[in-house]
Design goal:
Chain lengths: ~325, ~210
């Protein structure tokens, strides 16, 4: 079922494998040298990275239909996590099912490469359809809150995350260096490394806080160091994976660095409002699905439209 | 034959359903009994409660796990009775209208004697979804009679949202299952019931659950 995968995609996947092997070995060696320190948390994190990278890598090399099943399931899990986290009304059970139904439909449009419907289905049709269904139920107490919160979840989990999948189906005419899968790899690797880089830079030279009320651990040092690292990585990788010129790659790196941060703090604000620490417990050491996808909810649509504007259509 | 159907039902229908439609967040899984006899008690919000509890235990224990269920409800109708007895493996008990000198727990006691794991919902019925009702005393009698058998309290949240009483269409939600430390029966029935409710309430307080009305 494996279809012809571009060699550059395989090279970068092998690079990810190398990084994971290195991280696992480093933690194992540290465990031998200084066994007194508790490393259960970091071990759990790395083990989860193996699973996530493995599934993601697999999703990029299998036949397109199966890749879309993977990303569709990711959207479904994110939506389920969100709807389990927020207050919902018992009266809205059928409305929630409509929201769930949007997942297979949205991924069907992506499979059909029906761009026009993909781009308006959630923000227009689902936006109009759900309040209509709610009116038929007739419960007006808490109507606005329910309509607003359910649609926000669909936008984050189905529309935003769906952009990763549409990036995947972009043809080689958009990106001669590995088509859609290479662009997805570029986006996801940079977004995840941006998270890690911002965290590490923040530990190294962080003092002044960016937004103390939302996310007290985020510092200017971390933010700027992280963005610089991400721009640097974008410059290293673009020739392999994208159709970009150097200045476009730098702009893409900047976009991912800045808005990866924004996605992270937006989901942090949501969790703080709901008074939970993690969005779930599906990924040991990381939290829930939304904890891992938070930055991508911003970078995926923004990077997609950046690329689509420059090279699409 | 029915042992096979029972395994097939749990592996092909219930486990995939629990994995995909609900998704469980289990805390303190190590407190679950590793073998029978044991009495598992839990709060009751949905028909799914029994199914989920049965998937928590190791597969080898499925054949000796039996939910205790109301005879008047589950034995009404031939198909429902066959399904409840043969596939789910319930032990039916009479909620009311029993002859005065009969032992309502005779069958349950016999099963515990054979090393079974029985599941009891001391609230009596599913009641209002996601609201804890007071525990009935029956479980205290049972625990006293089998004072060497551990009683494992479990608190579940979310299954009443997935499939509440009176609805047939499941809606996906992540669900929580918190397992408490086991306790043993005593002479003091009220004291035992209070201790049991207290443990379930402590478990419930571990989670942060959004409103649902």
């Amino acid at each position: 079922m494996s279809v012809d995968v571009h060699p550059n995609v395989l090279t970068v996947l092998a690079g990810i494998l190398g990084v994971l092997v290195t991280a696992t070995l480093v933690v194992a060696v540290l465990g031998r040298i200084r066994p007194d320190k508790d490393r259960a948390e970091i071990r759990a994190r790395i083990r989860s990275w193996w699973y996530m990278a493995g599934l993601f890598g697999l999703a990029l090399v299998v036949e397109r239909g199966w890749s879309l099943v993977f990303f569709g399931f990711l959207s479904y899990l994110a939506l389920k996590e969100y709807l389990s986290l927020i207050p919902t009304r018992r009266a809205d059970r059928r409305v929630l099912l409509w929201a769930y139904l949007a997942v297979p439909l949205q991924y069907l449009w992506i499979y059909m490469e029906w761009y026009g419907l993909f781009i308006i289905f959630v923000p227009v049709y689902l936006f109009l359809a759900m309040p209509m269904r709610m009116v038929l139920i007739g419960e007006t107490e808490g109507f606005l809150r329910a309509a607003g919160t359910i649609h926000w979840g669909a936008m984050i989990a189905v529309f935003s995350i769906g952009h990763i999948a549409y990036l995947l189906v972009l043809p080689p005419s958009v990106n001669p260096n590995g088509a859609g899968p290479a662009l997805v790899l570029f986006l996801v690797v940079l977004t995840q490394l941006n998270d890690v880089a911002q965290f590490m830079w923040g530990k190294a030279l962080g003092r002044a806080k960016v937004m103390p009320t939302v996310s007290p651990n985020k510092t200017w040092g971390g933010l700027i160091g992280g963005i610089a690292t991400t721009v640097g990585l974008a410059m290293l990788m673009y020739r392999f994976l994208t159709p970009f010129q150097a200045y476009e790659a730098a702009a893409a790196g900047l976009l991912i660095g800045v808005f990866g941060f924004v996605g992270d703090v937006v989901i942090s604000a949501l969790k703080r409002d709901l008074k939970v620490k993690d969005s779930g417990s599906l990924i040991p050491g990381h939290g829930g699905i939304l904890d891992r996808l938070d930055s991508l909810t911003y970078t995926a649509p923004l990077f997609f439209h950046f690329t689509y504007y420059l090279y699409g259509a | 034959m029915n042992a096979f159907l029972r395994q097939a039902f749990f592996w092909l229908i219930i486990r995939p359903f629990v994995l995909i439609v609900t998704g469980l967040n289990v805390r303190h899984r190590e407190r679950l009994p590793s073998d029978g006899p044991a009495i598992i008690i839990a709060n009751h919000n949905s028909h799914l409660d029994t199914m989920v509890l049965m998937t928590l235990l190791p597969a080898r224990l499925l054949r000796k796990t039996h939910p205790i269920a109301a005879a008047d409800y589950f034995l009404s109708g031939r198909l429902r009775a066959w399904f409840a007895l043969q596939i789910v493996g319930i032990i039916p008990i009479e909620r009311s209208g029993r002859a005065p000198d009969t032992d309502p727990f005779a069958e349950v006691s016999a099963a515990l004697g054979r090393g079974a794991i029985v599941i009891v919902f001391p609230e009596g019925s599913r009641g209002e979804p996601e609201q804890l009702a007071t525990f009935k005393k029956g479980v205290a009698h049972l625990a006293k009679r089998h004072s060497g058998v551990p009683v494992v309290p479990i608190f579940m949240h979310g299954l009443g949202k997935v499939l509440p009483k009176g609805d047939w269409l499941p809606v996906p939600f992540f669900c929580d299952v918190f397992v408490g430390e086991s306790l043993y029966g005593s002479e003091d029935h009220n004291g035992f019931i209070n201790a049991l409710s207290e443990r379930v309430n402590v478990l419930a307080a571990e989670g942060k659950f959004p409103e649902w009305d």
